[in-house]
Structures are given as structure tokens and as C-alpha cells.
Design brief:
The chain is of the alpha+beta class. It has one domain (30-167): Molybdopterin cofactor biosynthesis C (MoaC) domain (Alpha-Beta Plaits, 2-Layer Sandwich). It is 26% helix and 29% strand. It has helices spanning 45-53, 61-73, 76-79, 119-137; strands at 31-42, 90-98, 103-114, 145-155, 162-163, 166-167, 171-172. The strands form two sheets. It has a five-stranded antiparallel β-sheet, with helices on one face. A hairpin with a 4-residue loop joins strand 2 (90-98) and strand 3. The protein is elongated and about 55 Å long. It starts with 30 loop residues before the first strand and ends with a strand.
Length: 175
């Protein structure tokens, strides 16, 4: 965990006059960078069972959501202003069923060998995968909730590694 004095207080996407800018990464060294993000979607028991059994009327919900998450990670520069177009080298989107909560955890891992990190790509992959699950299941359950989309880890680059401190059973740590 970073000490208070190590936490940056300046925003990098603004110049001295407060104008938005794309950070110049041309002088940065290429490094291997990986980001892992996660989130979940909770739903009714009926919708959950249909997804888990692969019986949703629209088809393979998680297969389509996985593809949507991968495609979204590749399009971040078109979606989020000031992000860099990246030649990402890896995108995985995985799902874990949690029967007791009728929820599906979504986890994305994105990798690159480059000058800037892939946190936004991992977060976007989770977000779009969750939205795709919602879209494919909304005919059965419009009350689904997308929860706790967050960065879990990131490695590489000048700022080093980040590991979220959270308990599997308690969710994100509250500070």
C-alpha cells in the first residue's frame, strides 16, 4: 500500500492552465504491463439459472459477453477521451458463478508491451461484459444490478505495481 506522501496529487490530463490534454508518452520506456479488473452482476434466481444452464432465449450469454468485453478493450481510445490507442497483446474475460448470491463475477486481464498501462482497457472490458449480460437477460429480469467494477491489480511502468487490498468475502476494503 502506498504511503500518503507517495500518493500523487496532480492530475496528469491537464496542463498548467487547466486545459485537457493527452499525456505525451513518447519518452517513456516500453515495459510489460498487465491490468486485472473485476465486477459482478446480480440477478433473479430464474435469470441466473437460465444463464448458468445456457438456456437463455438469446443464446450463449457468457460467450457473447466475453466477446463484447474483448472487443470493448480494443476500442477504449474511441470511447474514453484522452486515452491512447494501444496495441494490446492479451485480453481475457472470465466468469465465476456465485450460487448463493445469484451473481456472476466478471474478471478481465489485459496485457501490453508498451509505454502506457491498460487499466482502462481492463475496466472497460468488465463494464461492457456486464452490460452485455444485462442486455441478453433483461427480458427475464430488468432488476439486475451491476456491482463494484474495480481495478484489482496492475503491474509494469514507472509507477510500479498496484494490488487492491480486499477480502474475497467482504468485497472492496472501505477506507
Amino acid at each position: 500500500m502506498k504511503r500518503q506522501e507517495d500518493i500523487k496529487t496532480e492530475l496528469t490530463h491537464f496542463d498548467g492552465d487547466g486545459n485537457a490534454l493527452m499525456v505525451d508518452v513518447s519518452a517513456k520506456v516500453d515495459t510489460h504491463r498487465v491490468a486485472v479488473a473485476a465486477g459482478s452482476i446480480s440477478m433473479s434466481a430464474v435469470a441466473y439459472d437460465l444463464v448458468k444452464q445456457g438456456s437463455m432465449a438469446k443464446g450463449d450469454v457468457l460467450g457473447v459477453a466475453r466477446l463484447a468485453g474483448i472487443m470493448a478493450a480494443k476500442k477504449v481510445a474511441d470511447l474514453i477521451p484522452l486515452t491512447h490507442p494501444l496495441m494490446i497483446t492479451k485480453v481475457n474475460v472470465d466468469f465465476t458463478f456465485h450460487d448463493r448470491e445469484c451473481s456472476i463475477e466478471i474478471q478481465s486481464t489485459v496485457g501490453i508491451y508498451g509505454k502506457t498501462g491498460v487499466e482502462m482497457e481492463a475496466l472497460t472490458a468488465v463494464s461492457v461484459a456486464a452490460l452485455t449480460v444485462y442486455d441478453m437477460c433483461k427480458a427475464v429480469d430488468k432488476s439486475m444490478i451491476i456491482n463494484a467494477i474495480r481495478l484489482l491489480t496492475k503491474t509494469g511502468g514507472k509507477s510500479g505495481s498496484f494490488v487492491r487490498q480486499e477480502s474475497i468475502n467482504k468485497g472492496p476494503r472501505q477506507e
